[in-house]
Every structure is written in structure tokens, then in C-alpha cells.
Fold this protein.
Amino acid sequence: MMEYDKVVLQAFLEKQLQLFPEKVAETEEEAADFLDECMAVVVNSVREVWEYFDEAGLDVEEYDEKTILEAEEVFEIGDGRFLILEA
């Protein structure tokens, strides 16, 4: 189980509608539980986002950085890290 800090949880709560049609969490506790269920991961850089998708078997060679970061399941946390959901 991954631990999600307050900054990650707040970023998810603020941006969850980019992936879901309605809110799936209202509180930090609900957000943490939901992220655990989705097996969400936090990565420290754009490069790690790229590596995550590559390891997941996606053909990322065709994509540029902007395209990768625009994926609905990628949430920019705001401090250089990114949250990736398996939704």
C-alpha cells in the first residue's frame, strides 16, 4: 500500500473530475482509500511518467511530453511530482 501525503491527496481532490464524470472522493481519507483501490502511484518526474507507461506496455515512442502529461490518468501534483491512476 502506498502512502499519499497531503499535497497528493489535495491535488487529487481538486483534479479528480479530469478523469471521472463525478467526484469519487470528498475528503482526504476517501481520496486515500480510492487511490489505494486504484493502485495509484506517485512518480517524481516527467521521465518517470514516461517509464511508467512504457513498463505498462504502452507504445510511448510516438508521444511527446505534452501528450503523455495530457493523459486523463496523469495528475500533476504541482511540486514536480505526478499521480498516475490505473482507472
Remarks:
- Strands lie at 41-43, 74-76, 82-84.
- Residues 6-84 form one domain.
- The chain has a mean pLDDT of 93.
